[in-house]
Amino acid sequence: xxxxxxxxxxxxxxxxxxxxxxxxxxxxxxxxxxxxxxxxxxxxxxxxxxxxxxxxxxxxxxxxxxxxxxxxxxxxxxxxxxxxxxxxxxxxxxxxxxxxxxxxxxxxxxxxxxxxxxxxxxxxxxxxxxxxxxxxxxxxxxxxxxxxxxxxxxxxxxxxxxxxxxxxxxxxxxxxxxxxxxxxxxxxxxxxxxxxxxxxxxxxxxxxxxxxxxxxxxxxxxxxxxxxxxxxxxxxxxxxxxxxxxxxxxxxxxxxxxxxxxxxxxxxxxxxxxxxxxxxxxxxxxxxxxxxxxxxxxxxxxxxxxxxxxxxxxxxxxxxxxxxxxxxxxxxxxxxxxxxxxxxxxxxxxxxxxxxxxxxxxxxxxxxxxxxxxxxxxxxxxxxxxxxxxxxxxxxxxxxxx
Length: 402
Description:
Blueprint: H1 4-10, H2 20-32, E1 35-40, H3 45-58, E2 63-67, E3 73-75, E4 81-83, H4 94-104, E5 109-113, H5 119-130, E6 134-137, H6 145-148, H7 152-159, E7 168-171, H8 177-184, E8 190-195, H9 202-216, H10 221-228, E9 234-235, E10 238-240, E11 248-252, H11 259-266, E12 275-282, H12 287-298, E13 306-310, H13 314-320, E14 328-330, H14 337-344, E15 351-357, E16 368-369, E17 386-389
Parallel strand pairs: 1-5, 1-6, 2-5, 6-7, 7-8, 11-15, 12-13, 12-15, 13-14
Antiparallel strand pairs: 2-3, 3-4, 8-17, 9-16, 10-11
Helix pairs in contact: 1-5, 2-4, 3-9, 9-10, 12-13
C-alpha cells in the first residue's frame, strides 16, 4: 500500500490544492458543523449514510448528507433528496463543496459517504478534507480487489485509512473490530461495535450503526432506540417485467456487489420465489468482480440462462467458469425492460431476473424505502442494537470527541 504522503503530493498537498482563500473557507465550514460523520466500508455505505442522517434529523438535529451510490445525491435538512451536480468525473475535492453547502444551510450535522476507493485518497478524504468526529466502517467484504488488496486483512487496512483522529469509529464488523481498535489507538480514537439485533440483516446493521452514532452525539439510549424503530427500511426494488414475460420480475441487486452480501440476500427472507436468471453487468475496470460473480453463478442449479450487459468480456469469464455458451445471452447496455422480458419469455414462471455485478448504468433501479405505518417500525425494527466500546468510555452527552 502506498504511503498516504504520496496522496498529498498527488493533489498538491491536500487543502493547499484549494488555494489560500478556499482553504480558509473550508476551515470555516468545518468549524461551523459540530457533528461530522464519514461513512466507509465495503457494502452498505449509501444505505448507512441515509439511515444515520434520517435518525439524526428525527432527533431534531438539522442534518444534511451526501451519498455517492450509483448517482451522487444530496439530502437536505428536510430529508429531500436531490441530484448532486457534478461536472466531469468524480473528484474527492467535491467533499469540500459539500461541507460549504452544509455550513451555509446551518446544518449541525453532516453525514458523508466516502467516495474514494484508492487507500491513499481515502486517507486524504478523511484527514485533509472531512476531519470527521465519528467515522463509520460498515463492514469488510471481498470487493475492489484491484485497488484495496487481495485479502480481507488488506481490505480492512485500506478502509482503516478513514479512521478519524481524536474521535470515534463505529463498525458493525465484529471480526475486524479488534484490528480497527489497534489501528485507531495511535490516533487517540476509540472503537464502538454496533451489535444488530438481527445478525446478517443489512437494514438492522445500519440502524444499529446509526443508533451508536446518535448516542455518541449525546442522545440518551432510550430516545435513540425509539426513534430508530420508526425508520423506514431500504429494500431492493422488485419490478414486474412487461409482456411477453408475464409472471416475471427483476430484482436490483447490483448494489450487493460482493459475494458475501449477494449470497446472504439470496438466502434471506426478502428474496422473491421463482426461477433465478442472473443479469450480469460487467465493467472492464472491475474484472475481478465479474470473475467472482461468474464463479458464483456457475454453481446455480438450475441455471437456465445467463444474461450479460455492459463492457465486453463477461462472456469469457462465464465460459471460463464452466457455463455453456448456449446459455449466455447478451443484452444492450443499459438493458431495456422489453429486451429483458423477451430474453426470459420462454422460461417457466415465476422468473426472477437478478441484477448483479456492477451498478453503473442501472440508475433506474436504485433501492427505495419501503413504507411503514405511522408510529410503528417494520417487524423487528425496534431493536436498535447495543454497542460495545473496545477502548475508553462513551462520549458524555453534548460533548464532541476530543
